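Hey, I was hoping to borrow your eyes for a little while. No rush at all, and the record is pasted right below:
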Amino acid sequence: MIRGAKRTGTFLLLFALLSAPPTLQAGAQRYEPLADAVRAALATATQADAPPPIATLAATFPESAQWVAKQQSRVARYLPDPTERNELLYTVWYEAARAGLPPELVLAVIHVESRFRKYAVSTAGARGYMQVMPFWVDLIGTPEHNLFHLRTNLRYGTVILRHYLDIEHGNLARALARYNGSLGNPTYPNLVFAALNHYR
């Protein structure tokens, strides 16, 4: 009985999350002083490299094409244009792999943070798909980095989330709460976990 109630509760949370009108869930990622070595490592991680063409990525990593195909219908309601959807999904796969994160987790964060809106801006000033705070550009980036650019936004978002996951020694709930600026409050991690169930 308890197990069934839990399953029903999870389903209701997921239903509410997927059917709710798009609202930004971004809190204010908080500036925390970084050790010089950490700052240098994060700065190196955010630097641009040559973007792999989708055809090359799909050919080199067949699992990326399989993953993208699986996610198409799940993302179509937010990104009806197939070209835009393909670009986002392949970029999510690539940047997640580069940061050592499951691509489904990155999709779940995007879902909760911006509902896949490229130009989303929160009341705290967070920007883009993964709702990255602009202070990160000053901290670990360069002035030409545009947080509304798909690849730049995902590069920052995945690098920052990986950083928080490392700080929290692999505790994903705490890392997500840090990412959202709500450490100590389970609401945001629970929303991401519910979305994650949808994208798995």
